[in-house]
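User: Some background: our group keeps a shared notebook of sequences we're curious about, and every so often someone picks one and asks for a predicted structure to add to the entry. Today it's my turn. The entry only has the sequence so far, pasted here. Could you supply the structure so I can complete it?
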Amino acid sequence: MKYSASCIALCLVMGLVFLPGCNLFKTVPQDEAKRQGKTIADFPETAVDVFHEMDGGIALTSDEVKGRNTWMLWTGGNQAFWDYLAKNSYGNLDFLKILSSYPRPDKAGKKYAYSRDNRFEYFGLMNEPGFTKATAPDPAYGLYLDKPIGTAPEGIDSVVSGMSSGIVGLRLFPNPKFDKTSSDYDQDVVEYWDAERYYTDPDYYLDKELERPYRVGMSCAFCHVGPHPLHPPADPENPQWSNLSTNVGAQYFWIGRIFIAHPDEENFAWQLFNSSPPGALDTSIIATDNINNPRTMNAIYEVGARLGTGEEEEITGGALAVPGTTPRMVVPHILKDGSDSVGILGALSRVYINIGEFHEEWIKHFKPIVGGKKQFPMDVKTAKENSVYWQATEQRVENLAKFFLKAGGGHHLKDAPGGQAYLTADEAKLNHGKLVFADHCAACHSSKLPKPHTTVKDHDSFYNKWIHSRDFKNKMHEIVLKPDFLEDNYLSNEHRYSVADLKTNACASLATNGLRGHVWDNFTSETYKTLPAVRSIKIHDPFSGESSVYNMPGGGRGYYRTPSLVSMWSTAPYLHNNAVGKFTNDPSIAGRMEAFHDGVEKLLWPKKRFESKCQETWGLPWCPPVYKTTKESYLKINKEYLPEILKTKLLVKGEDELKIGPIPKGTPINLLANINNELSFGDPVRLVRLVKVLKKIKTSLKRIKIEKMNEQESTALLKTLVPDLLKVNKCPDFVVNRGHEYGSQLSDDDKHALIDFLKTL
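Assistant: Of course. Here's the predicted structure to add to the notebook entry:
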């Protein structure tokens, strides 16, 4: 059978050929530390309180200090993984680049968009205090990395935790392969190193065998440290440690910029990453489930109160090897879809695997970034036996939990500089808002609730009816009016709610990595795996707006846990994907309040979420946001990432990259990004359906190019593909800011009073 270049290329796009370097191991590997003969004794925790100014200067015990240091410094050996990904991400990700302040244009004349001067504005990342911008290359390797001011703080073992990089949460480690005596390569890797070409020449920096002088590791702080709501920096580009919070979450984090070292609007990969709103990312971006579903960074508030809100889960199989699990246990649900259901210690352990710990084994269980390979479970017992880094992390997570029990308190507007000016002094109006909250919000958004007097067989059914009764509301009024209502209140519960009831975008609830037999099988409960399917939902054609019914699958999918409202004033935009409300990129009190007011009004007055005058496209008086390409784009793959056989078949002489497309401007990104290549796993009928759709896409894209269609013509052609694409789409729900309209039917007076109360949370 002969395949055209476009057909082979489409298979590459949809992940039907292997990402280079994936599936390297035939047997269970050991991690790097174990291969080097190290033990957990080689990775001691540090009790030196080097970050004592953070988190409002809170006093910590020795164990709590160790926990914070783990959060800030511990990478679990993932520097080896991120180094691997720098060589195997089609030239997109390179953390050593984003750490740099290179001042000159590259070979194509394009200047880097980022440096230490604008890291917060551009990346949403926190510059590490105690460093200054590099104005000249370092004498050792010619890199433009931040320079420390004074001496490094004592008490941090750089062998264990790496060196400070200039960005909070990224740690520098010497690359053990950057060695003249290395026998892995034909050439001398040290002599081959050329920093100038590394910054400017794609022929050089896209070389998959290029060894960089440093590896870059990632600690949890990278995605969770942000500007402290109560102590905001005067200049976000130059914070002090006292301006930073470990638990607020990286609310300004631009994943589309961080993961693309060389931004290119014509590259569909950039379009895909750039669809994530600031402060949100798809945590399945590496162990992909082929659903583009950005979710907000979790703020970690009121951990003690949260532990009291958990629900009982049945734990079976490999999950019983997870730290702290028992066959039946009450647990909080960490991930947005409620899948991470094996307890706090298990959740923390899973996070380290998800950011690259023991990647030697982890990446065998899926095909990184592109998918297209049937997943199988990451076995906890295997990690315990073969990864010293897992063992060291397991030893640390208890102190990490202790730290957040102490430091996870809420940030209240009344305590912020100038915060009182935003709060009402009208006690009657505030009490009015409390009662509205009690009647319409508290059943889901309070961990302090009344209990029914009766015990009934079908508790859930009874409770769901009772919370709408006058009896419940009267009791809730008493609770919400108490002076201590907000003390130790998680302002949430741990119940899973049907997305069919919430009516929010379904994509994150359709995530599959935690299902039985998938990569995170050992980190999800039997309760989760046997959840029944929710009822069908309404979806919309992303071009016409025409609605249809989508039958939700079961086995764990279709649910969301309730987000906490603690410090709601400081955490806008809203919903699980940051899709409701203005992003101000301003961590000042005024900036946060501007975002709060815009977001909360759009929650309570849903029509404010949508643009007007959209009848031409949707036949509706409002225009729902859909992630769309901003420019005609292509899936670009540099020749370095193509197998030799495909180089000869797909590239003509002189071509440096494969360009698949054009993909018209305005293409709904998830129409392509969510193509379900799992249809090819063991089912000939479904495989035939998938191949037919891919061939149809190939033919259409070819027509756009050959016939030189304009934007209007190419869009019209793309619309004809929508029905076929929807049939193979893993999440055909494209409207990202819909749903959660609770309270929208309240009077305006009720809404304004409620907003005044929400400011106090």
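Suggested note for the entry: The CA atoms of residues 444 and 602 lie 19 Å apart. Residues 1-25 have pLDDT under 50 and may be disordered.
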